[in-house]
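Batch 3, record 17
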Amino acid sequence: MNKVLFFAHLRDVVGEEFLLLDASGKTVAEFKAELSTKYDLPRMETVMTAINEEFASNDEVIRDGDEIAFIPPVSGG
Amino acid sequence: MRMYEISKEPIDIQVVINKVVQREAGAITTFIGTVRELTHGKKTLFLIYEAYEAMAVKKLEQIGLEIEQRWEGSRVAITHRVGRLDITDVAVVIAVSTPHRVDAYEANRYAIERIKEIVPIWKKEHWEDGESWMGNQLETVAYPSGKPEAGDLDE
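Prediction for the assembled complex:
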């Protein structure tokens, strides 16, 4: 299983801070597309992805137990 | 001593500064980011900052490492606040010490620009007539590969 974290506007849309989903074997791009459709997530082309607290490319493959986070454009500072 | 922190409590500016005091330093610059009331004429009532805390601390550490490699002899401390902030509240404090003053100014500027690029922290602006999560200031950034590229990150 994978803990999947949402932040900012994505958290508002999904309605949860995180979900437990099985994403193992999928690429970041595949998983992103799947969630985008399922939850009707907006502006996913601007959203970065992190695996285990490090930015990940769209072609990276998710393994069982990885923590996935979707990172909308940041606005700290 | 934790040089990079996400804080739910108000930031004690002097504590952040004290972390970078070193005998080799000839300068300490401090950047204090505060909550502005008016943005392009629109009045903000208050802000909510949210962070992916574990990753945010790692990315702040990365920024500190980049600075220490680029500006020799520098020392960096950064604390970013989360939660509800009112107008004039302190959102972020960056302290940088270096042997010479030019480096201290440059490195501090680098730190705040990098925070706005790679640290997973978001602010939600609340106005009299609504609220919205803010993206990057230009609202134009897309990440074709899914993550920031080396080229995007350099000044």
